[in-house]
């Protein structure tokens, strides 16, 4: 009787495979696009040059005027310059010419 009950229990392998497939799909949907966005943002930050118009994570719009180590000097208005971390840059400002 014990052998009959043991033989009827399904193995956990199919359930484990389903779990692995779900984790794989989750990885493809969530983590790969986030990694691509982060890589693209880092390339944009690495290629910044004086004169580029940027937007910071705080919503400040300005023009890059210089660099110091891991910081950016940003002109936000006439005779107003601020210094920010390179990591605070979130996007290049689109040109308004159309």
Overall description:
The chain has 98 residues and is α+β, with helices and mostly antiparallel strands. It folds into two domains: 11-47; 49-98, SH3 type barrels, CATH 2.30.30. Helix content is 42%, strand content 30%. It contains two helices and five strands; from the N terminus they run H-H-E-E-E-E-E. The protein has helices at residues 2-8, 13-46, and strands at residues 53-56, 61-68, 71-77, 80-85, 89-92. A five-stranded antiparallel sheet has the order 4-3-2-1-5, covered by helices on one side. A hairpin with a 4-residue loop joins strand 1 and strand 2. The model has no long low-confidence stretch (mean pLDDT 87).
Q: Class of the largest domain in CATH? A: Mainly Beta
Beta-strand content bin? 25-35%
**What are the segments in which pLDDT stays under 50 over at least 5 consecutive residues?**
none
Helix-strand string: HHEEEEE
CATH-derived topology of the largest domain:
SH3 type barrels
Q: What number of structural domains do the residues give?
A: 2
Q: Total helix count?
A: 2
Average pLDDT for all residues: 87
Name the overall outline.
rod-shaped
Q: Which architecture of the largest domain would the CATH scheme give at its second level?
A: Roll
Oligomeric grouping of the chains: single chain
Major sheet: order of its strands?
A: 4-3-2-1-5
Largest sheet: 5 strands, antiparallel
Cα distance spanning the termini: 82 Å
C-alpha-based Rg, rounded: 26 Å
Give the helix/strand class.
alpha+beta
**How many E strands?**
5
Helix content: 40-55%
